[in-house]
Amino acid sequence: MRIGMLTGGGDCPGLNAVIRAAVRKGILHYNDEFVGFLEGWKGVLENRTMPLDLKTTSGILQLGGTILRSSRTNIKKIEGGFEKCLKNLQEQKLDALIALGGDDTQSISVELAKRGIPVVGVPKTIDNDLSGTDVCFGFDTAVSIATEAVDRLHSTTESHSRVQVVEVMGRDAGWIAVTAGIAGGADVILAPEKEIDLDDVVRLVKARWEIGKRFAIVVVAEGARLPHVEGQLTVGEKKDAFGHARLSGIGQALSEEIEKRTGYETRSVNLGHTQRGGTPTAYDRMLATRYGVAAIDLVHAGKFGQLVVLKGNQITDIPIADAIAKTRTVGEDIFDAIKSLQPSK
Ligand code: F6P
């Protein structure tokens, strides 16, 4: 078969591992041929490609980013966009297309599938908020980076008797915040799922001083909301093609509130894109490889319109449309676990 591949949306450690696994199994076991579209759906729209073979996908397993590069191009917003894509996909004489991406990228996969394109999806987002899969690759790496940052911030925060706020990624779901927060032993953990209660934040910070530990660490997801501010905090007015604002600033705003209300010196750091950069963890390389292998098997089984997912420890598949229908948010059990580690009111 002749198969196209693309990576769309924000990049994520493990994308190259998926590409490598799919190409290797495809060539070595099915005698497939591959073509890589550059910069996500933009490459399909403009018919810009690169060869994907055993040589071009060798030595990339441990590399962060994506050799195919990425973009947030939204075909739905481009006049005649789908027609151009269909023409280019036909010109490339493809039997199938494998799209690696989160909900935005997969929303285009769904539209192309409706128009008869045989698409298979692979779930990608460090936010880990795609429904239908227990884990997206890239999440483990992001959490490891954030946890290391929280660990490192402990010594300097304690030396200066400060409060340190750490802003992590997580637009609509607080998976990185709760996981790195629990793993790093943060005193306060704040996620987009629950509006921030400033009185409670102050109470938890002060409780640290009361037990004689004269410092506190607060982890907050970029998408968390302050009660006195409308909506999420953003930088600038710009939105991407899918309508998402650039989230940033909750850490700084929160640290100002904490300093004002407690009198303790409070600093903030925003880990930002550091969480998406660099080499994937062994867990992510393994998961990405399993997804790549499963994606090429789905193609050969003719199961189009499906997304490979992890359920428990088993790789299986679900309709792409189901995966993007709703965001997978952090459950009450995790928030209860956080509460059980904190002094009660
Ligand atoms: O979609 C994942 C994500 O990392 C979000 O957590 C974050 O808000 C966004 O991407 C940032 O994307 P960009 O690279 O466009 O700034």
In short:
Helix 1 (15-30) crosses helix 9 (282-301) and helix 7 (198-210) packs across helix 8. It is built from eleven helices and 13 strands. The chain has 345 residues and is α/β, with parallel strands linked by helices.
How would a textbook summarize the main sheet? 7 strands, mixed
CATH architecture designation of the largest domain: 3-Layer(aba) Sandwich
The tally of helices reads: 11
Give the N-terminus to C-terminus distance in angstroms: 62 Å
Subunit organisation of the chains: single chain
Hetero ligands = 6-O-phosphono-beta-D-fructofuranose
CATH topology of the largest domain: Rossmann fold
Could you name the CATH class of the largest domain? Alpha Beta
Portion of residues in beta strands equals: 15-25%
Uncertain stretches of 5 or more adjacent residues: none
**Helical amount:** 25-40%
Q: What is the average per-residue confidence, as pLDDT, rounded to a whole number?
A: 97
Radius of gyration: 22 Å
From N to C, what is the helix and strand string? EHEHEHEHEHEHEHEEEHEHEEHH
Structural class: alpha/beta
Count of discrete structural domains:
2
Number of strands: 13
Shape: elongated
Can you list the strand order of the major beta sheet?
Answer: 3-2-1-4-5-12-13
